[in-house]
Amino acid sequence: MVSKKGFTKGVGNTPSWSLKENEVTPESVFSDRRNIIKALGLGALGASLPGQVQAGLFDLFGGEEKPPFAVQGLDYSKPNQFQIVDRLTPEDKITRHNNFYEFGTSKQDPFDNAQQFQVNPWELRIEGLVDKPLTLDLNDLTTKFDLEERIYRLRCVEAWSMVVPWVGFSLAELLKMAGVSNKATHVAFETLFDPDQMPGQRNRLMGGGIHYPYVEGLTIAEAMNELPFLAVGLYGKTLPPQNGAPVRLVLPWKYGFKSIKSVVKIRVTDKQPPTSWNQLAPHEYGFYANVNPQVDHPRWSQASERSIGEGGLFSAKRIPTQMFNGYGEQVADLYKGLDLRKFY
Ligand SMILES: Nc1nc2c(c(=O)[nH]1)N[C@H]1C(S)=C(S)[C@@H](COP(=O)(O)O)O[C@H]1N2
Ligand SMILES: [Mo]
User: Fold this and answer.
1) What residues in the chain have per-residue pLDDT under 70?
2) Ligand 1: distance of its center to the CA of 257 in Å?
3) What is 18-333's CATH superfamily?
4) Torsions phi, psi of 56, nearest 5?
C-alpha cells in the first residue's frame, strides 16, 4: 500500500521515506498481499474487519510464525560506516514492550493492564484555529480516510528502538480537512483522561509523576510535514490498547514520547503548548525532542540504541543512532538556523 497522493519525492508514487514492503517481505508474499488488499478495498484493513477475518488475512500476509523480515534499501547514504539491515520488529515485541504510563511505568505494565480499555465510544476532536472543527468517532477513524501502511523506525529517548509497520493516515490530511487558519503556529495533542480506566492517572507513583492528561505538541510546520502519521493499526490489525488505541500519533524523527497515544483532542493554536515530559523534567526533555546522536541526554548517551528483538534472548544488538532517526531528508529543513543543542 503506497501513499496515494502528494508527497512524491521518491520514485513514482512511493515517497522517498518509505521502507518499501517489497524490501520487508519476500516478493511472493508482497504481491499476494497487495492483491488481497486491493480486492478488499483499503478501508477493509483494521477495525472494520471481524477478528477472524483479520487473523485469516494476516495468515495470507505471511503469518506470525515467520522470522522477522529483512528490510533493505533504507537510505544509509548519510555518513554511516555501518552497513545495517533493519528488520521489522516482531509483533510480540511491539505489543509487549511499551511505554504508556497511564497503565504503569514498567515495560510490561501496558500489556498487563490495558486489555480491558474501552475505545468505543470514542471522540477525537479537531478544534481551535480551524475553519471546520471536526469530531471523529471510532468508525470515522477507519472509514473517513484511505488507510495506508507505513513502516517507520521508532526511537525511544531511553535509547531503545523498533521498526514498526503502522496502519493509518497522515496528520496533514486531517488538518487540511479541518482547514488550518493562517494565525496558527502550533498544534496541541491530548490523551484521554479517564482515571477509572487508567490506573496510572489515579496513582501518582504508578503514573510516574506525570501530570495527566498526557499532552504533546508540534509546530504547525512540523504538523503539516508528510511524516506525522495517525495510526489506527499495527501489523495489519487493529491497534492494541497498549500501543495507544484507538488512534495515536507517530513522529518517526522524534523521540518516542512525542508520539502521544489514545488521542482525544487535536487543538490548532497560536502558542507553543505545554508537553508532559517537558513539564516533568525540562532540562532532560525539550519541546522539539528530535532524535540527535550528538546531543546526549544529561544521564546517558544518545549516540547508539538497543534494537529491541534483535541480538538474542539476553542481549540486544546495539546500532548507531542516526540524525533525525534517518529522516533528515524530510525534516532537516524545518530546523534550519536552529541551534539543536539549545532547542533539544
Ligand atoms: N499518552 C501517552 N502516550 C505515550 C506515552 C505515555 O506514557 N502516555 N509514552 C511515550 C513513549 S516514551 C514512547 S517510547 C512511545 C511508545 O510507543 P509503543 O509502546 O507503541 O512502542 O509512546 C509514547 N506515547
Ligand atoms: Mo519513550
Assistant:
1) 1-86, 312-314
2) 5
3) Oxidoreductase, molybdopterin-binding domain (3.90.420.10)
4) -60, -45
